[in-house]
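batch job 7 of whatever, protein = MtN3 and saliva related transmembrane protein
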Amino acid sequence: MSRLIVEIIGWISAGLTAIYLIPQIIRIIKTKNTSDISFYSLAILLSASVLWTIYGILLNTIQVYMTNISQASLVIMILTFKIVNTIKANKSQAPEVAS
């Protein structure tokens, strides 16, 4: 297989991986709902993305580290929405304190 075909396959897969979380982010923005999203799965995905980024940098493989930098950024966005929504939900469920 030619080097060009290998590079094309690498860039296409990198691009798809880099954008696959965008529909989830759009849904979160529209619905303002993150209750069905697992915090732990996001934490694991973020950890994996950081490790893949380091691996890609060490091997100087741009498709690997650029993909995982963008993926980690998207995961951080989702985690931020998740944390903010969880805090809001907990505040709304807290009992009123008489003053």
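notes: The chain is about 80% helix and 0% strand.
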